[in-house]
Amino acid sequence: MSQAQPQDPNQERQHGQVFTYKVSAHQSEVYNRGTVETDGFRQCLTFSQPPEFRGDAGFWSPEHLVAAALASCFVASFRGIAQKSSLHFLRIEAEVEGRLERVGSGLEFTHFVLRAQLALTDAADEAKAVRILHKAEQACLIARSLKAKVEVKPDIRVEAPLPSF
């Protein structure tokens, strides 16, 4: 007798199971640049230490990737909560600035400022949008996982809707 499978396997995973994400990074002693890759992705990511740590300019650094993870997680969290809450918006943009400082015997991020710019088409949705921005801050798993303080500074604007074609 076979066991019944859940109709949506993701639904079961969301209720108590653990998710894992595996990446690998490669770099040699000779080159400043390395690569990060994961199974199932067509492209790898080239990185370098930032120039202030004798790396090559113009490449993603681990420091930039941390800030990018925070920005993209916040935007994705906002979008998901906005959809569930029936909040219609034109766009959300998150700009993150991370402060790296010497603490004790090493460097660490001590503070992130996340500037969230949200464009709405209806001014009546502004209070709802503020609540959802706050919920996104609480829901963002990257923000919750960081030791450093994350300060969200929202900027909500009302703009004309995009023309439909």
Can you characterise this structure?
The protein is of the alpha+beta class and 165 residues long. The chain contains four helices and six strands, in the order H-E-E-E-H-E-E-H-H-E. The chain has two domains: 20-60, no CATH class; 61-165, 2-Layer Sandwich (GMP Synthetase, Chain A, domain 3). The protein has helices at residues 9-13, 62-84, 126-139, 141-145, and strands spanning 24-27, 33-37, 45-48, 91-103, 106-120, 149-158. A three-stranded antiparallel sheet has the order 1-2-3, with no helix packed on it. Strands 4-5-6 form a three-stranded mixed sheet, covered by helices on one side. Residues 1-6 have low confidence and may be disordered.
In the CATH hierarchy, the architecture of the largest domain is: 2-Layer Sandwich
Q: What is the count of helical runs?
A: 4
Task: Return the CATH class of the largest domain.
Answer: Alpha Beta
Taking the alpha carbons of the first and last residues, their distance comes to 54 Å
The residue ranges in which pLDDT falls below 50 over 5 or more consecutive positions are 1-6
Query: Helicity level, as a percent range?
Result: 25-40%
Rg of Cα set: 20 Å
CATH topology of the largest domain: GMP Synthetase, Chain A, domain 3
How many domain regions? 2
Order of helices and strands: HEEEHEEHHE
Strand order of the largest sheet: 1-2-3
Hey, roughly how much beta strand do the residues contain?
25-35%
Count of DSSP strands:
6
Instruction: Give the CATH superfamily of the largest domain.
Output: K homology (KH) domain
Tell me, what's the shape? globular
> Major sheet: size, sense and barrel closure?
3 strands, antiparallel
Overall mean confidence score, pLDDT: 91
**How does the helix and strand content classify structurally?**
alpha+beta
